[in-house]
Design brief:
By secondary structure, this protein is an all-alpha fold. The chain is built from five helices and no strands.
Length: 129
């Protein structure tokens, strides 16, 4: 399947789902009042989908790979911040487990996609458009 627009990317769609979950979690209770952590985690999760899109729109596999790696790093940042939120009792273990599972899945999917792009780059078979 040839990908012609970023909206076709499964990783982009999953990142939006997780962004919604993050906003829901950070809008409740004491988490909503901790402006520093709340805003930092929101910036980090927004960075995930934004870097996926920015890399795709560069229309260059090397740049796409670079931006996907940045997005993957932001996934790790969000996971760390969720551990902090769990530690200070802003979220429950159940809430943490649900979103963390999705973040791990997204990180794995981004990593697999990077590997795919590297293989196709060597074979010069893949273009994003």
């Amino acid at each position: 399947m040839k990908i012609t627009k970023f909206e076709d990317l499964k990783i982009w769609k999953l990142s939006l789902t997780i962004t919604k979950m993050t906003y829901d979690l950070t809008s409740k209770g004491v988490f909503a009042k901790d402006f520093c952590l709340r805003d930092q985690i929101r910036r980090a999760i927004i960075s995930v989908s934004s870097n996926i899109v920015e890399g795709f729109e560069k229309n260059n596999n090397n740049e796409f790979i670079r931006f996907l790696k940045i997005a993957k790093g932001s996934v790790g940042e969000v996971r760390n911040q969720l551990y902090i939120a769990l530690e200070v009792s802003y979220i429950t273990k159940s809430e943490f487990g649900n979103i963390n599972k999705k973040l791990i899945d997204l990180s794995n999917q981004i990593g697999s996609f990077v590997n795919y792009l590297k293989t196709k780059r060597r074979n010069k078979e893949f273009t994003t458009r």
